[in-house]
Design goal:
By secondary structure, the chain is of the alpha+beta class. The chain is about 30% helix and about 15% strand. The protein has 2 domains: about 325 residues, 3-Layer(aba) Sandwich (D-Maltodextrin-Binding Protein, domain 2); about 270 residues, Dipeptide-binding Protein, domain 3. It has 19 helices and 20 strands. The protein has a 4-stranded mixed sheet with strand order 1-12-11-10. A 4-stranded antiparallel sheet has the order 4-5-9-8, covered by helices on one side. The radius of gyration is 24 Å and the shape is globular. The two termini are about 35 Å apart.
C-alpha cells in the first residue's frame, strides 16, 4: 500500500459495501413507498445507490484506498477468489501447485478469460504475461505504487529492484512460463501467500494496452480494460458511475445484477433514507437519530436491519507528530501524548459501549473489539483463535472493554504531576477530527467528547471537534497530521496477523507519519533502534521494544504456532502501552437494502467484500429478525462447507 496508506474510516464506510448490502431495483414486493419500492421496471436487475466520496484514481496498480479499488473489484479478476462462505476457489487460475521448499508457486490459467473495453468489445485473452507486466509496474519506483510494499515483502528480488540493488527487472520472482502458466518465486516460504492474491497489487494488466495509454491509463472508464464480472461503462467524477454486466466474462452465469448505477450526492447520507422511501434509491444507511423512528414504525421496521460485521478494525489513534494549527497547541499536545500515563488515562477513561451505541443501540457490545486483530480472523494449528492466545486473551475477554474510571483517574493524577514538571499546561487541547459525510461519526465524536470530559474533568482535557473535508479526508486530515486523537481503521490484506501491524510501524501515516524522521524530533515514542541519528538513550524504550518484537515475529516463517504467539505478544505489548485504543470492528449501523449480504464473496482480505458477483436481489429489504435468521443459516452452511 505502502500498506500504511490504506483505508481511512470515512472512505471505507462511505462505500457502504458491507453486509447490509446496498440495494437493487429488483421486482420488489415491498409495495409502498415507505418500504422502498423500486422505481425501476418490474423484473429488471438494476441496483441504484448514492455515494458521497469520489475515487481519486481508477488505477488499481497504484492506489490502495478502498474508494479507489471499487472499479477494479468489479472489473478485474484475480487468480483465485473466495466464495460466500470464505472458501478459496479458482478464478483466473484453474489450479496451482507449490514446490516442496515452499518458494515456488505455479498457476495454470484458464483459457476462456478475455479482456474487454468499457463498451464491451473484446480486446484479447488474459495471459500469464499480464500478471508479470502488472507486478513489474507495481515495483517500479517511478510509478510510486502505494501497494509496492506488499509485493516487496514476499516476491524474490522485488524489494531489491525497488531499492536499486537489482537492476534487471527480469530477476524479479515472477515469470510467464507460457501463455497459461504463471510462476511466482518467493523470497521465503509464505504459507498465506494464496490469500494475498485477491489484493489489487496481484491483479493483471494488459501490457500492450498499458503502454499505449501511458499516463492516461485508468484515468477514465475507456482507458481501462476489464476481465471481471462488470465493466465500467460510464465514469463521471462527482456525477455518476455505471457498471454493466460483462457478457464475455468467463463466469457470467454467476453474475445476477445486470447494472449498478451510482449517483454522486455530497448529502448522500442525509438524503438516502427519504429517497429510499420514495423509491429513488435502493440502499440507505439509517442515521442514529432516525433509527428509533424507523424501528418503532410497524411498516418501516420490516425493512430495516443491521449491517454485517466486517474485518476492518477501528481504533482511536494518537498522533505523535501533530501538524495542526497553533490555536490547538500542538507543542503542548506533543508533551502530553508522549506521556504514557496521559495516554492510559484516555485509554481507560473511554466508555466504548456508550460510543458504539450511537451506531448500534440494540447490541453495541457485539461490535466492540478489544484488540487490533479481530476475533475469528486466524487460528493456530489446534484451532485456538489468535485473539485467545496469551497474553492477548486478557484484553479480548475483558467484559468492561477497557473502561475503568478508577484506573483512568489514577493515571490522570500521575500524568498531571509528570506533565506539569515537564512544562505542559492544562487543560490539554485534544483536536478530534471527523468526516462529515460519514454516517454517525459526528454524533459519536460528540458522545466521546462529553463522556471523556465528564470522566476525566474539563480541567484536564478539552476535546475540540472539527469537521474535515468530505472529499480527500484521508490526505488532508490523517496523512497531513491534522488531528490529535481520531478514530481510524485498518483492513487486512492477507491471512496473517502481521497485516494488522502495518499502520503502526515507524514512518507510518497513522501514529508516526513519515515526516517523523525529522532529526529534530527525537522522542522514545517515535524512533526504533537503528534509525539514523537515534540518541542511544532511547534504545529500549517502549516503541523500540515493540518494533523489535515485530521483527522477531516476522522472522518466524515456518512455525505458524510460534509466529502467532510472537505476534500476540507484540500486539498485547502495544495495547499495554496505550499507543492506540482498540474500539470496534467495522459495521455501518442499520440500513435498508434490496441485496442479501450473504450471497456475495466473503473474505477478510483483498477486494472480496467489494464485489457484487453472486449478489442476488431480494423480494424485500431484511428486517432485524430476518437478518439474524439469515446470518444463523449462513453460519451453519459455512461450517458445513468447511468440514
Amino acid at each position: 500500500m505502502k500498506r500504511l496508506i490504506s483505508l481511512v474510516l470515512s472512505l471505507a464506510m462511505i462505500l457502504s459495501l458491507s453486509a447490509c448490502g446496498s440495494g437493487s431495483s429488483s421486482s420488489s414486493s415491498a409495495g409502498s413507498s415507505a418500504a422502498g419500492s423500486s422505481a425501476a421496471s418490474e423484473g429488471s436487475s438494476v441496483y441504484r445507490k448514492l455515494y458521497g466520496s469520489e475515487a481519486t484514481t481508477l488505477n488499481y496498480l497504484y492506489s490502495s484506498k478502498t474508494v479507489d479499488m471499487e472499479a477494479a473489484a468489479q472489473g478485474v479478476d484475480t487468480l483465485v477468489e473466495y466464495d460466500k462462505y470464505g472458501n478459496v476457489q479458482p478464478a483466473l487460475a484453474t489450479e496451482w501447485t507449490t514446490s516442496e521448499d515452499g518458494l515456488t508457486w505455479t498457476f495454470k490459467l484458464r483459457d476462456d478469460a478475455v479482456w474487454v473495453r468499457n463498451d464491451g468489445t473484446e480486446y484479447g485473452p488474459v495471459t500469464a504475461q499480464n500478471f508479470v507486466d502488472a507486478l513489474h509496474w507495481v515495483v517500479t519506483p517511478e510509478n510510486q505504487s502505494t501497494t509496492s510494499e506488499i509485493v516487496c515483502s514476499v516476491i524474490k528480488n522485488a524489494a531489491e529492484f525497488y531499492a536499486g540493488t537489482v537492476t534487471d527487472i527480469n530477476e524479479i520472482g515472477v515469470r510467464a512460463v507460457d501463455d497459461t502458466t504463471l510462476e511466482y518465486t518467493l523470497n521465503a516460504p509464505c504459507p498465506y501467500f494464496l490469500s494475498m492474491l485477491t489484493y489489487v497489487c496481484f491483479m493483471p494488466v494488459q501490457g500492450d494496452f498499458l503502454k499505449e495509454m501511458g499516463d492516461r491509463f485508468a484515468t477514465t472508464a475507456d482507458t481501462m480494460l476489464y476481465c471481471g464480472a462488470y465493466r465500467l461503462a460510464d465514469f463521471q467524477p462527482q456525477v455518476s458511475h455505471t457498471y454493466v454486466k460483462n457478457d464475455k466474462y468467463w463466469d457470467a452465469d454467476n453474475v445476477f445484477i445486470e447494472e449498478i448505477q451510482e449517483t454522486f450526492n455530497k448529502e448522500a447520507l442525509t438524503l438516502a433514507p427519504t429517497m429510499y422511501q420514495r423509491g429513488e434509491t435502493d440502499y440507505a444507511v439509517i442515521p442514529a437519530d432516525l433509527l428509533p423512528t424507523w424501528m418503532n414504525d410497524p411498516e418501516l421496521s420490516q425493512v430495516v436491519g443491521p449491517q454485517r460485521n466486517g474485518y476492518f478494525t477501528y481504533f482511536y489513534a494518537f498522533n505523535f507528530y501533530p501538524r495542526f494549527d497553533e490555536e490547538y497547541e500542538p507543542d503542548n499536545w506533543t508533551l502530553a501524548v508522549n506521556n504514557e500515563n496521559f495516554r492510559k488515562s484516555i485509554f481507560y477513561g473511554l466508555d466504548r459501549v456508550k460510543a458504539k451505541a450511537i451506531e448500534e443501540p440494540y447490541d453495541p457490545e457485539s461490535q466492540l473489539n478489544n484488540t487490533l486483530t479481530p476475533p475469528n480472523f486466524v487460528s493456530n494449528s489446534e484451532g485456538v483463535d489468535y485473539t485467545q492466545l496469551e497474553p492477548l486473551k486478557a484484553y479480548t475477554n475483558d467484559p468492561n472493554h477497557g473502561f475503568d474510571t478508577t484506573k483512568a483517574l489514577e493515571y490522570k493524577e500521575k500524568a498531571v504531576e509528570e506533565l506539569t514538571a515537564a512544562g505542559a499546561t492544562f487543560p490539554v487541547k485534544i483536536l478530534m477530527s471527523y468526516n462529515p459525510s460519514t454516517a454517525n461519526w459526528d454524533k459519536q465524536c460528540q458522545i466521546v467528547e462529553q463522556q471523556l470530559e465528564e470522566t476525566l474533568g474539563k480541567d484536564y482535557i478539552d476535546i475540540i471537534l472539527v469537521a474535515g473535508p468530505a472529499t480527500n479526508f484521508l490526505s488532508q486530515v490523517r496523512q497531513a497530521g491534522d488531528y490529535a486523537l481520531m478514530l481510524c481503521n485498518w483492513g487486512p490484506d492477507y491471512a496473517d496477523p502481521e497485516t494488522y501491524t502495518d499502520p503502526f510501524g515507524v514512518g507510518s501515516t497513522y501514529n508516526w507519519p513519515e515526516m517523523a524522521t525529522d532529526p529534530s524530533y527525537f522522542t522514545d515514542q517515535v524512533y526504533a533502534e537503528g534509525t539514523p541519528g537515534l540518541d542511544p538513550q532511547y534504545v529500549g524504550q517502549p516503541i523500540t521494544v515493540y518494533n523489535q518484537m515485530l521483527d522477531t515475529a516476522k522472522a518466524e516463517k515456518l512455525d505458524i504456532d510460534a509466529r502467532y504467539e510472537l505476534f500476540a505478544e507484540a500486539e498485547a505489548y502495544f495495547i499495554e502501552h496505550a499507543f492506540v485504543i482498540p474500539f470496534a470492528v467495522r459495521n455501518d449501523g442499520y440500513c435498508v437494502n434490496m441485496v442479501s449480504p450473504f450471497d456475495r464473496p466473503f473474505a477478510p482480505f483483498g477486494v472480496s467484500t467489494l464485489k457484487y458477483k453472486g449478489a442476488k436481489l431480494l423480494e424485500k429489504s431484511m428486517s432485524l429478525e430476518e437478518f439474524q435468521a439469515a446470518e444463523t443459516a449462513w453460519e451453519t452452511a459455512k461450517e458445513a462447507s468447511q468440514s
